[in-house]
């Protein structure tokens, strides 16, 4: 963890999906940077119990933060699922409508509800920020991640719409998203070895990211360091989306 710089001193942040993975790493980094961090996750997992698909639960969370902290400055929509089933339940040729709808309910509708709550409850004049979590899967298709990739593409587009809505409403609220590549999280922990290796071979960095590496970019988008960045979708993927279609690693070229 880098030395604290106080980039978020005096600010209040709500991080969903904060019990593990990228959400947990983001909450820890924000706290180190001086923010008052409210960690939200499913009941029993987070400081604030929040089912992101429940609009009333969002209002309750914002009302609580308003009473206890004086309002919210930063929202990070990190809650997400890859599939609502097991095995090949998310594969594009076999995914059920129930599974598809559940993935979209959490990843897209949950993000939408969070953004709407931020727009409704943002009553102060100081600048605020929303950071949504999309994915490189929005642009790098995998038949095994059909529902997930489609949902994250929707999150990237939703981000632009929210940024535009805030601007047209005169709110000093920026909305951006990160597009993480493969990271060492509970979502990827159960990958079959061959599938994991297939991804690694497509990543120029040759490895999965640590959650803290993704959190650093979320911090950038949440802080004043990115004061002129709005409506952006920023890949943090080890070069996955810019990978060569044909080529050899330098150490293989001699052969």
UniProtKB/TrEMBL annotation:
InterPro entries cross-referenced by the UniProt entry: NAD(P)-bd_dom_sf, Sc_DH/Rdtase_CS, SDR_fam
Pfam families, per this entry?
adh_short_C2 (PF13561)
Q: Which PROSITE patterns match?
A: ADH_SHORT
Q: Which Gene3D superfamilies does the entry link to? A: NAD(P)-binding Rossmann-like Domain
Provide the family line. Belongs to the short-chain dehydrogenases/reductases (SDR) family.
Give the protein's recorded name. Answer: SDR family oxidoreductase
Upper lineage is: Bacteria, Pseudomonadati, Pseudomonadota, Alphaproteobacteria, Sphingomonadales
């Amino acid at each position: 963890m880098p030395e604290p710089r106080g980039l978020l001193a005096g600010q209040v942040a709500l991080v969903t999906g904060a019990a593990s993975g990228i959400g947990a790493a983001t909450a820890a980094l924000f706290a180190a940077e001086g923010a008052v961090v409210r960690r939200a996750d499913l009941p029993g997992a987070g400081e604030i119990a929040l089912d992101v698909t429940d609009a009333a639960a969002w209002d309750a969370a914002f009302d609580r933060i308003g009473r206890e902290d004086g309002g919210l400055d930063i929202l990070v929509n990190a809650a997400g699922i890859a599939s609502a089933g097991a095995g090949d339940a998310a594969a594009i040729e076999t995914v059920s409508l129930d599974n598809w709808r559940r993935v979209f309910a959490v990843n897209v509708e949950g993000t939408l509800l969070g953004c709407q709550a931020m727009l409704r409850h943002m009553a102060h004049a100081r600048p605020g920020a929303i950071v949504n979590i999309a994915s490189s899967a929005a642009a790098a298709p995998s038949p095994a991640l059909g529902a997930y990739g489609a949902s994250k593409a929707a999150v990237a587009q939703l981000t632009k719409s929210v940024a535009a809505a805030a601007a047209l409403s005169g709110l000093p609220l920026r909305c951006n998203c990160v597009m993480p590549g493969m990271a060492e999280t509970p979502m990827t922990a159960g990958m079959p070895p061959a599938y994991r290796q297939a991804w690694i071979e497509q990543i120029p960095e040759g490895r999965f990211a640590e959650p803290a590496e993704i959190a650093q970019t979320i911090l950038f988008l949440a802080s004043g360091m990115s004061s002129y960045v709005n409506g952006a979708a920023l890949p943090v993927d080890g070069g996955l989306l810019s990978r060569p279609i044909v080529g050899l690693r330098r150490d293989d070229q001699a052969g």
